[in-house]
Task: structure prediction
Amino acid sequence: MAKINYNYEKRAREIEKEKKKEEKLKKKEALNNSKKAEEVPSSTDEKSKE
Result:
């Protein structure tokens, strides 16, 4: 009977964790960028009203 390759399974889990971590970081960056984009026009609108 063939031996189970635990190293392959472990590496696959590590790669999956890395992908999830990168996706979370991209989501956070996109969220932060969208918030910053919303803040910039509001500050220029306040200055133009004065």
Observations:
- The two ends are 81 Å apart (CA to CA).
- Residues 6-49 form the longest helix (44 residues).
